[in-house]
């Protein structure tokens, strides 16, 4: 009999994408619980079970007892915590582990020179591969760029400054990028657990739409009536600057620089060359509209 996922535990519900995962999994009919640190002060819905952990092996195994799938949404800087979770998941006989990916393609070679912030994500998937023989399967989900988060953040992230407004177009802003709303990412997570065989031990790619930076600026201007001052930039130069800042320990500068440059680069980190459309069909995900998503983003900023 094929595996069926019923009991799902979500890690990192207090973060950016975690609440969306929680909602979409519950809407899809899964029995969902939460894993939270003992010291966490985050609040959660009163009708859901919260398992507290100090990340020790015994506490994690206890939390994962009876769980069919672990969905991790831990923040980038906490990605190494997943090694302990994977070991506990194996002992607790969890069927599927979804590591905290939900960004660019962390399977690329030479990742330390493209997206150094994602190297630990790559190592987590490599570790999961060693656990396949012990009964733990996995799925890594690459989504390109979070459209409604990264492009609405401003302060230079993804090249945008909304307070001016101005935009730095990297490599003329014409290269395609996979962009995905957080709603679509949540739907993809739920769909993955409903398509176990198709997604078993694979990296999959989903998006809301493929778009260039210039197309995004054009949509913002059309919908808002505002004009962005446009300047030019180079992804290769920004990758080098971000890597240097990270090596210096300056993550405040290096992290956003590296994220922006890697996603816009020609390395394939932010664009799956059509694979996202193929996986969207397998998972039953509908393509979203740039204009609709851009309008919602601008409304959230009070621009329209």
Automatic annotation (TrEMBL):
Pfam name, any one: NmrA
Keywords: NADP, Oxidoreductase
Family matches, as InterPro entries: NAD(P)-bd_dom_sf, NmrA-like, NmrA/Isoflavone_reductase-like, PCBER-like
UniProt keyword Acetylation, yes or no: no
CDD domains: PCBER_SDR_a
Top-level lineage group: Eukaryota
Any one GO molecular function term: oxidoreductase activity
Protein's name in the database: NmrA-like domain-containing protein
Organism of provenance: Trichoderma guizhouense
Organism classification: Eukaryota, Fungi, Dikarya, Ascomycota, Pezizomycotina
């Amino acid at each position: 009999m094929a595996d069926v996922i019923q009991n799902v535990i979500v890690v990192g519900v207090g973060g950016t994408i975690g609440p969306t995962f929680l909602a979409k999994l519950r809407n899809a009919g899964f029995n969902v619980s939460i894993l939270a640190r003992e010291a966490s002060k985050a609040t959660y819905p009163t009708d859901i079970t919260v398992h507290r952990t100090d990340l020790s092996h015994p506490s994690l195994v206890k939390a994962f007892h009876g769980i069919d799938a672990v969905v991790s949404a831990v923040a980038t800087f906490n990605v190494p915590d997943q090694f302990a979770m994977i070991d506990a998941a194996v002992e607790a006989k969890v069927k599927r582990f979804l590591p905290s990916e939900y960004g660019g393609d962390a399977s690329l070679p030479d990742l330390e020179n493209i997206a150094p912030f994602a190297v630990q994500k790559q190592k987590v998937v490599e570790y999961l591969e060693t656990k396949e023989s012990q009964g733990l399967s996995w799925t890594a989900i690459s989504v390109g760029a979070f459209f409604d988060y990264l492009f609405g953040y401003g302060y230079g992230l993804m090249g945008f400054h909304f307070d001016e407004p101005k935009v730095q177009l990297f490599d003329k802003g014409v290269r395609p990028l996979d962009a995905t709303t957080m709603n679509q990412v949540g739907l993809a997570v739920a769909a993955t657990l409903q398509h176990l065989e198709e997604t078993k031990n694979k990296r999959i790619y989903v998006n809301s739409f493929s778009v260039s930076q210039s197309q995004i600026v054009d949509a913002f201007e059309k919908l808002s009536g505002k004009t962005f001052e446009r300047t030019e930039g180079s992804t290769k130069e920004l990758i080098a600057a971000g890597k240097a800042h990270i090596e210096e320990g300056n993550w405040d500068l290096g992290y956003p620089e590296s994220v922006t440059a890697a996603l816009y680069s020609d390395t394939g980190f932010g664009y799956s060359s059509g694979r996202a459309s193929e996986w969207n069909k397998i998972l039953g995900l509908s393509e979203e509209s740039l204009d609709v998503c851009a309008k919602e983003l601008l409304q959230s900023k009070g621009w329209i």
